[in-house]
Write a structure and sequence with these properties.
Structural class: mainly beta
Strand content: 15-25%
């Protein structure tokens, strides 16, 4: 059975050396040569050393499972092992070689998995295995590198307007509904960082996500490391199914933004135009403020808290401002019954008269 070419008359004229790809496209159709291999195929260093039997031990520089994932080579239909440490397999595609709008998208390398067994088999459309040997301690090993170059417009994106541009990783839930049917449930997670079935401190990651200094283009003075839509949250779990802590943003109105900024020894909670709360840290601090909520009928507490035995709680207005509290009520003369000691802004004790 022959396959056929997607070259139109224009492509046949402009690229006569390409030959046919499908036999029923093109005017006139170009001759098509299709090579079919039912056997396993070995290339490069795999050619002289790949095993012929499933039960053969390791081979080549995968002499055993201790040297590398030799199971992958044993199960490979097409096996290419680079002779000189170069690139073993290259897949490249160029958009300009395709047809007009609506033709197949150019894909350099594609991996497609259909998990269709009830035997609880895990499957991988793409798999990358990295083994960093002790001799390479001063080098870096990468499971996947995506180098994206944008020679078009400088287009930004947000959760409500992704638009055009260059994206390093695009994780689409639900897949392509034009084949295989539509999804019946949400996909579990877009990305999971885990240990590969191992426990212990040496089997994990030192960091989950790292943004290199200067890697993010500043927008309004800062690079946007993580961008999320409204009514989404960051959650922490203390056990399976037990959500312990959450940070949620429910701001949906333009002009009603709030932000939290961290500076040297300073935390600022701000609205869109002005600060709302400032928390300052001083050198050699020993005491601080504690804010406590309350049950019905009890007051909310602002407590001086720290290591000192006696700690004043100061309210400092700015300039000629004064501290305001309570409601003034005019009454007849009252007898002086007792007093409450407070301090003025200079720290001098003063007595406030109590009439009852």
């Amino acid at each position: 059975m022959e396959y056929f070419s997607v070259y139109s008359t224009v492509n046949v004229i402009n690229h006569p050396n390409k030959g046919g790809f499908w036999s029923d496209y093109g005017s006139p159709p170009l001759p098509v040569a299709v090579q079919r291999l039912r056997d396993r195929a070995f290339f490069g260093a795999a050619a002289p050393s790949a095993p012929l039997r499933y039960g053969d031990p390791g081979y080549g520089w995968w002499v055993s499972h201790l040297a590398g994932a030799n199971w992958a080579a044993t199960n490979a239909t097409v096996l290419s092992m680079a002779d000189v440490g170069g690139v073993a397999v290259v897949g490249a595609s160029r958009a300009s070689d395709g047809e007009a709008v609506g033709s197949a998208a150019p894909i350099g390398v594609g991996g497609f998995l259909i998990n269709d067994t009830a035997a609880a088999h895990a499957g991988w459309a793409l798999y990358s295995d990295v083994q960093h040997q002790p001799v390479g301690a001063d080098a870096a090993s990468y499971g996947l590198e995506i180098a994206a170059k944008n020679k078009g417009n400088n287009s930004g994106s947000d959760p409500y307007g992704l638009g055009t541009g260059v994206y390093g990783i695009w994780v689409a839930g639900g897949g392509d509904n034009t084949y295989g049917g539509a999804a019946t449930n949400p996909a579990t997670a877009a990305m999971v960082i885990l240990t590969n079935g191992q426990s212990g401190l040496t089997n994990g990651w030192n960091a989950g996500i790292v943004f290199q200094n200067g890697a993010l283009t500043p927008i309004a003075g800062a690079g946007e490391a993580i961008v999320m839509p409204a009514n989404t949250r960051i959650s922490w779990y203390s056990a399976a199914g037990v959500r312990s802590t959450m940070i949620t943003s429910a701001v949906v109105t333009s002009g009603a933004q709030v932000s939290l900024q961290f500076y040297d020894n300073l935390i600022v909670l701000s609205g869109i135009n002005v600060g709302m709360l400032r928390l300052n840290n001083v050198a050699n601090a020993a005491n601080h403020l504690q804010i406590m909520n309350s049950a019905t009928g009890s007051p909310i507490l602002l407590n001086a808290f720290g290591t000192d035995t006696d700690i004043d709680l100061a309210l400092n207005p700015k300039g000629a401002g004064n501290v305001r509290f309570g409601t003034n009520v005019i009454k007849a003369a009252e007898a002086f019954a007792s007093y409450i000691v407070i301090k003025d802004s200079g720290g001098t004790p003063r007595k406030v008269m109590v009439c009852a």
